[in-house]
Specification:
Shape: globular
Order of helices and strands: EHHEEEEHEEHEEHEHEHEHEHHEE
Largest sheet: 5 strands, parallel
Strand content: 15-25%
Number of domains: 3
Number of helices: 10
Length: 316
Amino acid sequence: MNIGLHDAEREHRKSKPFPNLAIMKISAFHKAHGDCVEWWQSNKNYDWVYSSKVFDFTPDNPNLPAKTIRGGTGYNAKANEKYMILSALPEKYNQMFPDYSLYPDYDFALGYLTRGCPRNCPFCVVTQKEGNISRQVAKLTDFWAHQAYIKLLDPNILACVDREQIIKSLADSTAWIDFTQGLDVRLINKTIISLLNQVKIKTLYTAWDNPKEDLTKKFIFVKEHFKIKDYRRLKVYVLTNFNSSHIEDLERVRILRDLGFDPYVMIYNKETAPQITINLQRYVNNKIIFRSCIDFTAYKGDSKAGRYLLEGSMKP
């Protein structure tokens, strides 16, 4: 069979898109069965076309043929009943070793060791799609070919009952490990942080999503016991525009900066966000400005010109 692959983010991003794991596994499956596999081209005919989309704001390609199987978190099955949509990647594909040849510009391994999350956060689809129990679903060798870097997509690896053994296996790999979705700081204790200190980690990613939950003591504990002390390598995602006020957003940013962490503002549904939240994101995520001015009230965001204005220290 002739198989066409379509990565929606790859098509629309100007910069290099992050590799699509589902597409790599589908490719591996069909190649193992002797099929001809290539990136979909609109001027060619295929027996099957697979399209994957990670983000719901990524546009669909209207030229995709009717016989296209779509999947990924960017597709909502109920909202797209006219399409053939997979709510989850079938096991026959999921068990395949990824076809890294599709993204030759990248030299890292990519995959999941665990699936599911007990948090059931209302802004996140993981619990609905994967269940409320974090469980181990793969071994490192299921997607790692001894690359020097491993990027993990696990939603909450520390909530897994096998977390200690998993972290030990990551340390034993001697590869650099990137927990791309962040580690649940609420689950970091002395045992966990001792194990994490044995793993080669360039940047530690955590999150503070709910301002009603005071995580100050947890971040103090991490700062005191984690081997990395450089704030530039201690990043914390801060969710805004979701059940939080501007004062609450600003307070989390202030606390994290004072503790020696590097906050990174994430906006939920940016189309509905007030301008002050957009300005806060620009202010915090532009580190030159964020580190040169500790007073957000001195900042002005010129959204039309796409420039950053800082009273008293920078000019447009």
